[in-house]
Amino acid sequence: MSTRRADVAIVGGGLTGCAAAYYLARRGRSVVVLERGFVGAQSSGVNFGNLRLQGRYLPQLPLALRAQAMWEGLEAELGDSVEFVQAGHVHVALNAAQAQEIERHAVDCRPYGLEVEILDRRETIRRWPFLGAGVLAASWSPRDAVVNSRLVCPAFARAAIALGAAIVEEIEVTAIEHASGRFTLRTDRDLVVEAGCLINAAGAWAAPLARRFGEEAPVFPAGPVQMVTEPVPAFVAPVIHAVDGSILFRQTARGNVLVAGHPRVTVDAEGRRSRVPPAKMAVNMARLAAVAPHMRAHHIIRAWTGIEGYLPDMLPALGPSGTTPGLFHAFAFSGHGLQIGPAVGAVLAELIVDGGTPTPIAPFSIGRFREPVAADRDRLRHEFYDDVLDRRPSA
Amino acid sequence: MADAVVVGAGPAGVAAAAALAEADLEVMLVDEAPRPGGQVHRSPPDGLDLDMAALLAAGHDAYRAFHARFAALRPRIDYRPQTLAWNVFAGEIHLAARGALEAVPWRALVLATGATDRVLPVRGWTLPGVYTLGGAQAILKDQGCLIGRRVVFCGSSPLLYLAAVQYLRMGGEVAAILDTTPFARKVAAAPRLAAAPRTFAEGLGHMARLRRSGVAIVHGAHIVAMTGDGAVDGVTYRGGDGVERRTACDAVACGFGLRPETQLAELAGCALRFDPIHRQWFPRVDGDGRAGNGVYLAGDGAAIGGAAAAALSGRLAGLAAVADLRAGTIAAEAPRLRRALHRLRRFQHGLAEAFAWPHGRVADIADDVAICRCEGITAGEVRRAVGAVAGALEVNRVKAATRCGMGRCQGRFCGPAAAELTAAALGRSDGEIGRLRAQPPVKPLPIAVAPAEDAA
Fold it and tell me: Model-level pTM?
């Protein structure tokens, strides 16, 4: 049995784990990432690719703006393309309530340093003439961007490896011991990892690790539905996104149109299988045709979903453990982990190396689940199909 | 709910539908084509006067018999031509036809989805004028058209000879047959091929007919490139003597064997197994085509076997479904069908060995040759994705890293070559090679078929 000692062990090779490994390695720390499957193969690598600032939970904007500044220089830093395109996002209001919501949000996010422009229907149609009759108004955020999510984790992983990090794929952690300030991770392969710090970055599968250290997090899995069309002539540069997320789409450089839209669907986290119900595909096709009528002439060539971890308040668990010194949680990013991913990695490195971070993360503490939290089903109705919430483990 | 849904109106699907209808079960027969027949019994549209007797010669009897059987069956089933079966989910098969979607539950589902050509990417294979062998035959049977005036047939397939003879009959010129399998390999397989003496003799007859017509037949050819600027104008190859030669042509038909269409089976939850002789994945079925959970498979989509084996396996699958639905024993004719099917499959195994996909050539594919024609992904890009730090360790990760297999065909054509290339780059060509997992829709789905949301 071989034993590997490191400053930090990371369970989970998604974006959080890979980015944390990179920023820790950059700070001179030795790191081992243990990934059950392949790096970035779960939700980190199969999502829509949005780097979205507008519409975000306001107290998360400092983290998000920090991340966006990192994304803007990330390809140069990592020496790899992640197909970063900063062509803005357009949030389209499809009813009067949504039109009011974007106006309010544009005011609310200004103190954080995010500028969003409100456009009336006439100006919206002047800029994006393909939009359908249902669009009443829009908000325009030019700093919003996209990446190809499939490329992000491998790029972070390669950069981390270049700095000396070890990333082990196809290995499962079977037990974790904690004694005299050290974590010992046993695996299903010929490897034991000993580390002074441990990051729980196990995504939708993170709750048992937290529970092992006496902390509850009512994580539940769900899948955001994604589809892509055949390549079509270029017609749109920014992401078009309904305010409530019921439909969003973007066009790649190749010409394909990626299409997504809530609610999210049930997935099999234990079997690590996820399928898109055909009826949901039809709903999103109809919504796409309503917002961009010319897309009726084209075809969907693939549909997929991934397994994402959610918490009932739709915020992540991020920060130090409340029970165990040296343990840090960073999981269940509730459908918006990609954009903040680099900043989350940097924050974790700061927590471990400096003992604290200048970026406010208090709202994301796992301690908020010490008392059972009831999900607000009315609020979550447009986010998830009922069967997702029916299966949700009680807090 | 129909008692049984059968997908595919080729010889396997129609035989299965007939067996189910004879037992007075309600049968829905779904087919993508406008007319029945599958690939082998494809027929021209009404109003096109194509002399099928001249085109098919000895094969015309089987063609006529198939269409007569279908005409008799037609009033007894719910026949759905021009209907795309695009997904299987939660016990329903999902159809798209005439601008609308439909989800159909089944008690028995027979998948007779057939096969397509397997492709070997060589330099120039994406030039206009280069067709798959099946495509060249489809154009001929469906429209009476030739793919060119002077055609090279190349690859590793017994169908090269049949298709070339059909082109001769219809007035085409066959520039050459470049058969990538060595002659000795075919001789070695002869004892197995004798399991189906008539088919074997027909194959030899085709070769003789081509020779009499002065067609050059090169065994053990190595295809170097399809050449041309904007359209194919020749094929360069090396014969057994190692000398590079060029044959001028204005079209090429390439056939490197068949690839089963297994996506619907996979979406229906069928397990797949790796066949080391075909070096491909097939759905796991019992001797009568049962895949479990009320799903049955027949024809080339279950095991490459040709038209006669497809019809036998279709009838067997249909009878098995009848027995299972009635909780009874299978019809008395089943043992005879199994024996005949076993003989034909033995013959096909002989063919598969004689006309093996030249996987040893994968290492020779130059880095700048396109593997995935939809997305324009080259062999070099696949190799780099495997060789990179933290690189892809299997073909689905290659797909994620490169887009190979993410285009309009969803890896149906590039998948096997991408899997071989990945295995070769990993140094794992000896054992099981991987495969791209199926994702719906199995073919492009028109956005316009979705009903408007308030109407849904």
Answer: 0.95
Give, as one character, the DSSP assignment of residue A85. B
Beta bridge partners of B251: B151
Q: Which residues does residue A318 pair with via DSSP β-bridges, in sequence order?
A: A330
Instruction: For residue B445, give the 3-state DSSP assignment.
Output: strand
Residues linked to residue B218 through DSSP beta bridges, in sequence order: B178
CA distances from A107 to A114, A115, A245 (A): 10, 9, 20
Q: What is the pLDDT of residues A75-119, one digit of tens each?
A: 999 999 999 999 999 999 999 999 999 999 999 999 999 999 999
Kindly state the DSSP code that residue B408 receives in the 8-state scheme: T
* CA angle (B252, B307, B269) in 5-degree steps: 95
3-state SS, residue A237: coil
The C-alpha of B373 sits at a distance from chain A's nearest C-alpha, in angstroms, of 13
Which residue type does B178 have? Answer: L
Torsion of CA A279, A285, A289, A294, to 10 degrees: -150
Q: List CB contacts (< 8 A) between B397 and chain A.
A: 38, 41
CB contact under 8 A, A282 and B451: yes
The domains located in chain A, with CATH, are: 2-48+150-217+314-371 (3.50.50.60), 90-139+225-305 (3.30.9.10)
Dihedral of the CA atoms B173, B176, B181, B187 (nearest 10)?
80
Closest chain B CA to residue A259: B447
User: Can you list the pairs that A273-276 forms with residues at least 24 positions away whose Cβ atoms lie under 8 Å?
Assistant: A274/A223, A274/A304, A274/A305, A274/A306, A274/A307, A275/A305, A275/B89, A275/B440, A276/A223, A276/A225, A276/A226, A276/A227, A276/A303, A276/A304, A276/A305, A276/B440
Contact B453 A158 (CB under 8 A): no
Cβ atoms of A86 and A275 closer than 8 Å: no
Q: What are phi and psi of B75, to 5 degrees?
A: -70, -15
User: What is the per-residue pLDDT across B20-65, written as a single tens digit (0 to 9) for each?
Assistant: 999 999 999 999 999 999 999 999 999 898 999 999 988 999 999 9
